[in-house]
Amino acid sequence: MFKNLVFVITFSACFFLLVPAGSEEVKEKPGLSAKINNAAIGAKQIPKGMVLIPGGEFIRGTVSKEAQNVCLKNNDHCKEKWFKDEEPLHSVKLSGYYLDLYEVTQKEYQRVMVNNPSEFKGSNLPVERVTWYEAMEYCEKVGKRLPTEAEWEWAARGGKQSTFAWGNEAESNRANFCDRSCDKRWKEKQFEDGYSHTAPVGSFPENDFGLNDMAGNVYEWVMDWYDEDYYEKKPYDNPKGPEKGNRKVIRGGSWINYSVGIRPSDRTDAKPTKKINFVGFRCAL
Ligand SMILES: [Ca+2]
Ligand SMILES: [Ca+2]
Ligand SMILES: [Ca+2]
User: Fold this and answer.
1) What pLDDT, in 10s, does the model give residues 164-190?
2) Domain that includes residue 96, residue range
3) Any domain includes 98
């Protein structure tokens, strides 16, 4: 059992072990399709609580063997196949867009959606236990949308190609992941971030784009359907993911993950109807 749980935190194909697949049919609600608001990008005023992420070209993905080596620096059990969905490396071109500075908090969510589904309660903690559909609804209600998977990764990198947004090594006090204060058996005792579960948003240093908690705290729903082989197609120009699928991409790792799981290139997936206590979101425009 322990072995399986360890796998779960980085190996998306085993994600169902923590998040058992239900029998419900997944259907995308009408009107919740991707909308890129190009007009807004031309606006001079940066929307409150957001930052302009400049357009450009970057290399997304990773070499799975290298990710395994990063994992092995801090853990004994790391398999290369956990990281295969991040291959092959390929160039992506993005137009500019705005992204929320923080994960959506419980206070913000409750103001818009009335309810607060979170397990770990606190007004400035990120909302969790929201479905992908609820995340979409929230963003639409505030005039925004979810970021695409490519937009999310470029933003998380902070304009860099390093393994983590701050460099090539996992470090304490950079992000909230499963450190020594974490109550899971697979915690990485050599790190200390001070939070056993979720942390108030903005508790750690921002990345070079000024964004907070792109690494860890809660995973973040993005727009795209998940396909572990999607990168084989090497989509280049503002990629929007597979046309359809059964699972959505979640990004950035969380309080429950190994440090290797909070790399900007990590790809994990979940059923869009699931409410998970380590998955939240932020919006784009
Ligand atoms: Ca932690
Ligand atoms: Ca996050
Ligand atoms: Ca993965």
Assistant:
1) 999 999 999 999 999 999 999 999 999
2) 30-280
3) yes
